[in-house]
Amino acid sequence: MEQISGPPAKTGTFYQTPRSHPWRPTMGYEAVEVTPLHEQPITNQLVASSYSPSGMCSDPVTFPNLVTGFERNPQHAARAALYTRYTPNEWTTSNVCTYADADKNRNYSEKVRSEAVRLMRETDEKTSQGQRDAARRLGERITDITFWRNELTTELEKLIAESAQLTDTKRNVQKALQDLEPPLHIAQECLYHRESRKGIELVHDHVEKSLLVEVDNLRASQEKLSQLLAKITKQLADCRAAQHSLEDDISHKESALGIDSICHQLNNYSRGINYYGGIEKYDPTVSTPGTWSGSSSTRINNSHSERSKSCQLRSDAESLINAVATSVWDCWSNTNNAFNNRASEMLEAKSKMQLHLHKTQQEIFDVEKHIELLRKAINDKSNPMKVAQTRLEARAHRPGIEMCRDNAHLRLVEEVCTIQDSVATLHRKLQEAEAQHQQLLRTKSQLESNLKQKVDALFIDREKCMGLRRSFPVNNTIKY
């Protein structure tokens, strides 16, 4: 029986039989060995009625005896024997017919032999031609497989090289992303340090604006690099998928090339050839030459597309890294310049503050001397006041009419009033001087406090902040 599905089973050599019959030619369709029964002579005893099986519809065969007869008397037997003889004409005719049949059979046999020889030659030629054509087709197939295998191998090498370059670009992006952490940390530390300023020094100045711009730029750069890193990771996965597809196709083509090469080298004298019944009816193919070459072409085109995307992504990554590094460096430089300018302004303000403090201290010293002079002047008016009042008190004891409002009395009264006015004026001036002295002391205190705040702010900006920003924390600033 022929198989319905699945690979054909090996049936063996059915073109040969173990025991051929001399009276029957060996045919290709004989696949079963016929074992004859044991030869036994047929006798009357074996076919006698007593030995015949039950159910036979006819009597057993009997052979009459021509000499003695069988169920006949001898006369009847002789008579029957004369009737079984042939005439000479019949004998001659029989011989002629036998000769004619022999000639006819020989002629027919010769014709059969010639046709068989011609058919053998034709089949041999057809078989040889078919085998050569199949070998030529196998050679063409091997050429096609070799071409596509080489194309796939070349594309695979290019894809692997591109994947390696993209991996290097990924490492550069990761390094750039890590290199943004130190500047961001330093900028935030500078903002935190500047928050410790006191009083009027808590100014939203250009330095703080530059620091805020730098922090925003660093965070935006981190976001861009993170998005680029995600794209590169996805592209690497796509390239790996395309690489796996190419490797799988190359593996299949290597296997097919090995099988077809072995098939191309087979001949009629090769070892291992055998019969596989029904193999021509088993069709395991899943593609046509068009779809086969189209599949490899699609994989190559897909790999080429992934390589183009990877190349564009590498270019974008390099441009973005350089742009980020340039922007970070510009913000870093602008902030440092703002720190330097602010330090210069604060040094100038500190110098002016120190000058005003020195002048204020000198003025306080002068005011204190002036106050002492005013007090001395007030004290100096004591004795003249005593003299004038003593004179008036002494003249008040003049007797009788001598109590005259004369010019001396008027002048003494005027002198006392004048001294009293002078003392009052001096006291007012003394109060003003003392008030101004207190104001100068307050001014001095404010100047000293402001000077301390400016010194502290200058220390924060120039020592703490600029101490962190003296060197850029990235080794290579433009190209990683």
From TrEMBL:
Primary location class: cytoplasm
Keyword check for Coiled coil: yes
Similarity annotation: Belongs to the tektin family.
Keyword terms of this UniProt record: Cell projection, Cilium, Coiled coil, Cytoplasm, Flagellum
Tagged with keyword Zinc: no
Biased composition (Low complexity): 288-298
Highest taxon of source: Eukaryota
Taxonomy of the source species: Eukaryota, Metazoa, Ecdysozoa, Arthropoda, Hexapoda
PANTHER family given in the database record: TEKTIN
Stated name of the protein: Tektin
Chain residue ranges for the region called Disordered: 1-22, 288-307
Compartments reported by the entry: Cytoplasm, Cytoskeleton, Cilium axoneme
